[in-house]
Write the structure tokens for this entry.
Amino acid sequence: MTSGIEGYLFGAAVLLFAVLLVIEKKFPYMPVPKEELKKSFATNTGAFLLNNLIMSIFSISSLLIVASNYAGFGLLGRMSDGPAKWLLSFILFDFAVYVWHYLGHKYEFLWRFHKIHHSDKSYHVTTGIRFHVLDQFLEVLVKCFCVVLFGVPANIVVVCEVVRMFFVLFHHGNFTFPGERLLSYLIITPHLHRAHHSTLREEHDSNYGIVLSIWDIIFGTRKELVPASIGLELIEAENIVQLFSLAFLTERRLARFLHLVPRRRT
């Protein structure tokens, strides 16, 4: 069970999750077979609940402790509290998460954990809670470092995490809405992030933003496309055990095991 601020965040996530599920059901962007949705829902929500139990001592409370003790040494540490500091803190945090997301795709060690998120063969709001616990643990460590580096106060940390949580659920939604493409030049929308879950590597290595879409525009990682298929080709995960085990098996090793990659001649 969670307590304190973690309890409020957990409750907010559940509420947002329920609202977006209703929107998906009433206004789906693309049809998802009932059995596939049921299987994915069970796996993803199970991973979320397990992650919440394991990560309770490392999550938002860790950031709050670090912020309370070390935020004064960072870039914004001596800046007076106010709208400007809140805005700068949020922008810096969002950029840091963009960079971390980018690195998660570029380095094999990080990708082996992050690929669990991409292994969902369908795309809907529960995909937004499908993560490997070690992926989340490493992200918390990075955020703790950023709290010290940027000098972000504890109250701003809470706001940043709540907003980020909302957007992770929002842009995984299986729905669209009028003006979405125009809005995507300001924030990450389902249309942009759906391309990020394409089966093709050259397509899913894009749109790394979490809240603001400006980072993908600046660094040339923005792609607007409708993916032909969702998920990873060789990766299958039909239950929680498979989901967490996949992090310890690279696609290349799996391909060799299946004799899909020719072995070197000696």
Q: What stands out?
A: Residues 67 and 154 are 5 Å apart (CA to CA). The two ends are 56 Å apart (CA to CA). Residues 4-21+33-230 form one domain.
